[in-house]
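Ops channel
N.P.: pipeline sanity check, posting one input/output pair.
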């Protein structure tokens, strides 16, 4: 991530065209939020390409088809007008009738881990398109288990990878060295892997620190209340189902972030009292001290959270502290998103912080003008956090990058971090030697284990206090 997959792909397609290997047309499918960036890069690296961006509502797309596709009486002419069609995942499915009738010289899927499930509509529809060659771009080919990797390989070469059971059986005991070598040999012809160290020899170092945070008094009160209120579900004899356990987990995660994520007192103007806002959360008290030092040291900071409501609270906090900032979450798309990035990256920009939601802000964004990343709360899927901090640790970065991951001590968060480490081991194994396990989603037992982690200590404090 941050190694120039976009640029390499554009130059690859351009060279195919310029050297006479292929006349196109090429289909590029990417997340809607990254399409503006793709347009820019095409303009810069392949100026002679006629690139059509196929997005917008039904009427807009109809106009594009009429004027840019070279249709004649609703039948496609043999001569297609454009070299590249740039579109989103959703439109691949919605406009299947039109796009699926074109013979594509090459398909490029950006953030191709979207294809990790062969039951998804996107996978099935795209599989029915007429495509000569396929190129999948991803920084995370394997997020949970080997099955997901198999589906990517099956999409690329279905004639070779068509037996999932056989594949999983063959690599069931993935911790054995001969199995790892065999898997690497199998993947070799299909995977071109670049490490930051290969591409960019002078890449500044990055250091990740797990910062263990204490719960505030208010948070402890809420945490105990959530646990006691759900005693039946948490007591194995009472036997809570998986859904109720996940709901409890979300409440506990909210509590670790900030108690105001539950109904909280507001001032007449609708905002919170700044001092109370900070003192109510262990993480915010720490963040307040850290940001002061980081600001004095001339650093710029990206702050990631999974919860948009937490980003709202962080906005209130930054306003209270008097820091200038930008923000991107799932509700901010296209042009507005790019404008925020451009403002933050502009020479001499005054913005000190950039608030991002882990999933929306983790894809195809370059924020190498920041050198500090704070993961306010960790994602279930460690690859989403890696995508997140790769916004800063990428080509163009000329300072050492510090990553601070906030984890509430003796809580669900601490246990989630341990589970995430296990998932990471599988990636290290498949794409380079190491150890790992085949399991993907969590069992009820694991959920149970996570929820109860640290509770003994929390309630023991109570008893000692009495």
């Amino acid at each position: 991530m941050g190694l120039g997959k976009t640029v390499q792909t554009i130059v690859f397609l351009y060279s195919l065209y310029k050297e006479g290997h292929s006349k196109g047309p090429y289909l590029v499918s990417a997340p809607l939020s990254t399409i503006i960036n793709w347009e820019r890069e095409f303009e810069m690296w392949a100026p002679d390409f006629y690139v059509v961006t196929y997005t917008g509502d039904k009427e807009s797309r109809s106009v594009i088809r009429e004027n840019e596709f070279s249709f004649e009486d609703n039948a496609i002419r043999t001569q297609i007008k454009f070299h590249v069609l740039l579109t989103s995942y959703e439109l691949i499915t919605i406009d299947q009738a039109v796009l699926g009738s074109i013979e594509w010289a090459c398909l490029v899927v950006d953030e191709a881990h979207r294809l990790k499930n062969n039951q998804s509509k996107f996978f099935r529809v795209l599989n029915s398109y007429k495509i000569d060659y396929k190129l999948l771009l991803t920084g995370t080919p394997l997020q949970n288990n080997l099955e997901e990797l198999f589906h990517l390989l099956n999409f690329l070469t279905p004639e070779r990878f068509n037996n999932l059971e056989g594949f999983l059986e063959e690599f069931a005991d993935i911790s054995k060295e001969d199995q790892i070598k065999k898997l690497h040999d199998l993947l070799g012809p299909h995977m071109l892997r670049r490490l930051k160290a290969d591409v960019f020899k002078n890449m500044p170092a990055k250091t990740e620190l797990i910062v263990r945070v204490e719960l505030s008094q208010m948070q402890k009160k809420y945490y105990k209340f959530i646990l006691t209120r759900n005693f039946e579900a948490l007591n194995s004899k009472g036997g809570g189902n998986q859904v109720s356990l996940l709901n409890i987990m979300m409440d506990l995660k909210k509590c670790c972030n900030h108690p105001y994520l539950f109904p909280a007192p507001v001032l007449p103007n609708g905002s919170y009292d700044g001092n109370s806002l900070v003192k109510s959360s262990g993480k915010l008290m720490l963040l307040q001290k850290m940001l002061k030092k980081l600001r004095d040291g001339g650093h710029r900071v990206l702050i990631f959270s999974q919860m948009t409501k937490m980003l709202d609270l962080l906005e209130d906090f930054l306003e209270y502290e008097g820091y200038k900032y930008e923000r991107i979450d799932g509700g901010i798309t296209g042009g507005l998103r790019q404008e925020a990035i451009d403002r933050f990256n502009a020479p001499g920009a005054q913005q000190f912080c950039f608030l991002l939601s882990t999933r929306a802000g983790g894809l195809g964004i370059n924020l190498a003008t920041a050198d500090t990343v704070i993961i306010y709360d960790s994602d279930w899927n460690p690859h989403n956090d890696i995508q997140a901090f790769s916004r800063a640790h990428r080509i163009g970065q000329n300072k050492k990058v510090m990553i601070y991951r906030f984890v509430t001590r003796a809580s669900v968060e601490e246990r989630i971090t341990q589970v995430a480490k296990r998932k990471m081991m599988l990636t290290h194994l498949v794409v380079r030697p190491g150890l790992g396990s085949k399991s993907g989603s969590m069992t009820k037992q694991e959920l149970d284990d996570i929820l109860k982690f640290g509770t003994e200590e929390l309630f023991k404090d109570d008893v000692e206090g009495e």
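N.P.: looks fine end to end. The first strand starts at residue 26 and ends at 30.
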